[in-house]
Amino acid sequence: MDAERQRFLARHPRSCALAQQAAGHFLFGVPLHWMRDWPTPATLFVRAARGAELTCADGHVLADFCLGDTGAMFGHSPPAVAQALAEQAARGLTSMLPDERAAEVGALLAQRFGLPCWQLAMTASDANRFVLRWARAATGRPQVLVFDGCYHGAVDDTLVDRDPATGATLRRPSVLGAVHDHPAFTRVAPFNDLAALERALVDRQVAALLAEPALTNFGLVPPQDGFWAEAQALCRRHGTLLVLDETHTLSSGVGGWARTHGVTPDVWVAGKAVAGGVPCAVYGFTEEVAQRLRAVKEAAPEGHSGIGTTLTANALALAALHAALTHLHTEATYAAMQQAADALQAGLEAALRRRGRPWTVTRLGARMELQFMPTTPRNADDVRRHLQPRLEQSLHLFMLNRGVLLTPFHGMLLCSPATSAAHVERLLQAFDDWLAALV
Ligand code: PMP
């Protein structure tokens, strides 16, 4: 790590200078504090990003497998989105009225994601917060259920862990300025555990189960065969709305995991890449849920609903969403992503075998996770038992110094339609060098 830190500093004099300047006026030297949570000794500044490549302030070109932690899953600045944005930019940015493309966008959302009725938000965090509000209003129930190891954004209700001894809800100790009573309103169940799920639902106090189809934010934990069919049946039996947050699992295939696996949730959420990386999130629901939402809204007094923000569904976001739904959420795009991911997975697994490392590559469509454990985990506790943050940081810094960008905090690798065989080859070479360098 010491050698790699020195190497980074020597290779990035301009980023180091910018970091020093930015420290004068930004808290922690960055516009968002978590931009310092990379394992680099100084912040890496970006000059440009295009397709699957990112050029840093020192002019090094990186093969990007982080892709803005999924925001740029379809590649940086996809041409169709960039063009739509440029055209719209001269015709108004925001008006608090729907752009005339809105009707067509609604039809495209229904077509791509399979649910009839939609609302927009700016971010996936916002969408999840609004969905929980709608769900509590529609059901009249106070509780929310999530899976241990979840992440659904900056949403108080979901910033919780499960006490492994008692199963009780714990507020994450890292949450700042908390006044929300997390244990009073959120329940946490282990993933892939139908008995625990039923125990959480049986008293009929849970408005919504908010879940990713596979956990992607604490390692990658796929659902076991048949899990979701049973889980959905349990939700129905106990009157709980099933909300699938597909912000990351959109990498599964066109329309996301639910569409490709024939599951129709009550509510479906996606953000990040849904509009090609422009701030925009969507949530859709069944006609039955739509009727319930209309009824609660019509019964409520006039005034602030607590749902929505002023810039939500602005003209730029709608232009980007329209272009993304038309040109990015397509079979051709996903075929290119899968092809790159196939080569990457095969190469990683071959390197692990060659170097005798008993580690696992877990795959979900265009994304995969390198896990320092012998088999794919079943739940968050499996992941916790095998965490090796220092090893992970060493991998990330080593790769970055060799022109490959990985997602910080975990071993996620994502392929965009612009990810080429040469990008994959560069990653595999650097990975093999890292394996060879391990003691
Ligand atoms: N849902 C999921 C599944 C996520 O992974 C994330 C972010 N990692 C979010 C929601 C929140 O997205 P955002 O930070 O864009 O609001």
UniProtKB/TrEMBL annotation:
SUPFAM superfamilies: PLP-dependent transferases (SSF53383). It comes from the Bacteria. GO terms for molecular function: glutamate-1-semialdehyde 2,1-aminomutase activity; pyridoxal phosphate binding; transaminase activity. Its cofactor is pyridoxal 5'-phosphate. Its EC number is 5.4.3.8. It is an enzyme of class 5 (isomerase). InterPro entries: Aminotrans_3 (IPR005814), PyrdxlP-dep_Trfase (IPR015424), PyrdxlP-dep_Trfase_major (IPR015421), PyrdxlP-dep_Trfase_small (IPR015422). Belongs to the class-III pyridoxal-phosphate-dependent aminotransferase family. This is Glutamate-1-semialdehyde 2,1-aminomutase. The lineage of its organism: Bacteria, Pseudomonadati, Pseudomonadota, Betaproteobacteria, Burkholderiales.
